[in-house]
Amino acid sequence: MIMHKRKAAILAALGTAVLACGMAEAQDSYTLRFNHVLGPGEPFHQGFMNWAKRVEERTNGGLKIEVFHSAQLGVEEDIIEQIRQGANIGQNTDAARLGNYVPGIAVVNGPYFVESLQEAFALGKAPTMVEWQNELAGQHGLKVVCLDWVQGFRNFFTNKEIRKPEDLAGLRIRTPPAPIWQESIRALGAEPVAMNFGDIYPGLQQQAIDGVELVYPNITAANLNEVLKFANETKHILLVNFQVVSSQWFNGLPGEYQTALVEECSNAGQETSKVVEAAEAKAKATLQERGMTVVGDVDLQAFRQAGEKAYETLGLIEARNKVQKEIGK
Hints:
By secondary structure, this protein is an alpha/beta fold. The protein has one domain: 3-Layer(aba) Sandwich (D-Maltodextrin-Binding Protein, domain 2), CATH 3.40.190.170. It has helices at about 1-25, 45-60, 75-85, 95-100, 115-120, 125-140, 180-185, 200-205, 215-220, 245-250, 255-290, 300-315, 315-325, and strands at about 30-35, 65-70, 90-95, 140-160, 170-175, 190-195, 210-215, 230-245, 295. Strands 1, 2, 3, 4, 5, 6, 7, 8 and 9 form a nine-stranded mixed sheet that branches. α2 (about 45-60) links the parallel β1 and β2. The radius of gyration is 23 Å and the shape is globular. The model is unreliable at about 1-25 (pLDDT under 50).
């Protein structure tokens, strides 16, 4: 009887040890479900897939990133709120939306704020930008993994030619639902209409909006040339994208996993940004082949001057000047 009891105790101890080891192994495996609104044919999607592959390889499968295109996990604003609550979800987003939590960071989305990849890549380490990122993480639960993803120059795509700000008068232009974005488009001469990316095509068909401001690859990927005639090269925003995850989730990762996530995000982002530059020219040529007219003789100086009003309205002139000085612009 005593031997049976000892045997049972030993087996129980072994079972507990095995269970504990299994739990430890389970805790060493992490998954990030990453959401973005772009289609599977966009350069960014492949870039996110590259990021995921490199992180998984670098962590020997310990950290996996599952990429969901076309907002499969939900609307961007809703996803950001889930991230803030600690969910293991990531989102490709922009300074305009992050400005809802830390107002100053919205300047990155302002008219003509940065105008080259070199300037954009310098933003991540600018002291003021670092302060804002720390505030997002510490006070709002949003960890910026990196911001080296540049989606290209945004232009106005309409059904009439646009050469100066006055030409936009009365036109309803789709924008994401964020103050800096709406004020930027208003300052440049149009009437902003907040609308989700997936609603653009039917919105144009139903004439709920008169045009959009997007990058060239967005137009080809979504076939918006079917409902728009002119590409007006205002280049009013060089769109810098931020990859965000939950601060709580990020802090729970092993240190080497955190490093891998951040470094590979930056590497893939900079590579993808250069791919996007090349894709812009290709998409532009494709749109011209499809019958879209490119308006290149735009009065950029007039648009630059008009854009100043957005910074004034939102009280962001000082913040803009400070960051631009830090990156040498």
